[in-house]
Every structure is written in structure tokens, then in C-alpha cells.
Amino acid sequence: MLRRRKMVRSFSGRPVPPPTLDRLLDSALRGPSAGNTGGWDAVVLQGPEETGVLWEATTTPQWRAGSRRWPGLRKAPVAVVLFAHPDAYTARYAEPDKRSSGLGGQGGLGAPGGGQGDLWPVPYWFVDTGFAALLVLLAAVDADLGACFLGNFRGEAALATALGVPGDRRYLGTVLVGEPGSDDPPSASLARGRRQAEDVVHWGHW
Question: Does residue 150 form part of some domain?
């Protein structure tokens, strides 16, 4: 499964059967989570009317007109929009079994760099939500579907407002899922190649 995973950026538009989609979303719940907090939520958009809300908030007419990816991306039948919940972690780490960490507290995490989030060397709300995204990507491969991850580059506030997301959540990104389309231009980034184990693994010391 791992060797078959790749980013699919063109879709046929055929709907994903509900039982299959349920399995993908259940897989996302199997990821590790700091303090077993599970501090993330997903808004699942299906069909052009719902996914159109995502595109309207996170892209521009100029990008859509000039992107070779747009015709294939827009046909994705499912968009799993992922939001992290920072305050859930500070609340969890204020509980008795985690209080000694000094990471507990309240407030201020809805905005980047705010409040108690500054105490955390690693913002695990993003780490855990990233785990969930990866598990959806892998579960899609297992279901013989295509999927890709779209990061948060633009329109976070507009998207949250359009979807009715609470103000204390942070948009991480979206996993598009569906049957692969026939026209999926290779990414130019593939020319960089994939790093090998000898390039990244350091045994005993750097």
C-alpha cells in the first residue's frame, strides 16, 4: 500500500460509495494522538455544490483560469476538510495526569502563535491532524481510490466562516478523494527525486 501511494490530482467525478467513505473516515480515527486528545475535526464535502465552497474560499479566479490542475481537481467528488483544535490540547494537559508537563492552560489558540500554544515546543494539534490526513490518504489507496492533500495556503478565515467552523479551530488542509481521472499531469516536483534512506537516516549520531 505504501509504495502505491501517490498524489492524484485528477478525478473522474464519480461519487464515492458511502460505505467506502465511512471506512476512510474511520481510518483517520486510528492515528496516534498526544494525550489521546484527538483534537481534530473533519468537514466532509460531497458533490460540486459542497466542494465549490472549498474552491471559492481557497482559490482565486486567476488561479483557476491559469492552473493546468484545475480541470481535474474540481471533479473530486469528496473533500475531507481538516481542522485542528488547539484548545483541546491545553485543556487535556491541564488534567491531573498531564498537569506536570506545564503545557495546560486556556485560551488564545485560535490565532497563530497565540496564548498557551507558545508553551508547546511542537504544536501537536497540527501533528495529530496531519496523522489523520495521512491515514485518509493511505485508506484511499487501500480502497483503490485516488487522493491528494491540499495544504492551507489561502482563505482559512473565509473557509471557516462558510462552513460554520468554530473560531477556536485552525484549518490544516484538505484531502481530496475519488476515482482517478484519465488526465493527471505529472508534478514537476517529481524531478527532484525521492530521498533515500542513506540520505536521511543517521545511526547513533548525525
Answer: yes
Tell me if 167 is assigned to some domain. Answer: yes
CATH at residue 19: 3.40.109.10
Residue 204 lies in a domain: no
Q: Could you report the per-residue pLDDT of 24-50, keeping only the tens digit for each?
A: 999 999 999 999 999 999 999 999 999
**82-133 confidence digits (pLDDT tens):** 999 999 999 999 999 999 998 987 544 444 444 545 788 899 999 999 999 9
Q: Please count the structural domains in the chain.
A: 1
Task: Tell me whether residue 89 is in a domain.
Answer: yes
Give, for 174, the enclosing helix (H) or strand (E).
strand 170-178
**DSSP symbols for 74-106:** TT-SEEEEEEE-HHHHHHHTTSTTTGGGS----
Residue 94: which residues within 8 A CB-CB, separation 6 or more? 104, 105, 106
Question: Can you tell me whether residue 204 is helix, strand or coil?
Answer: coil
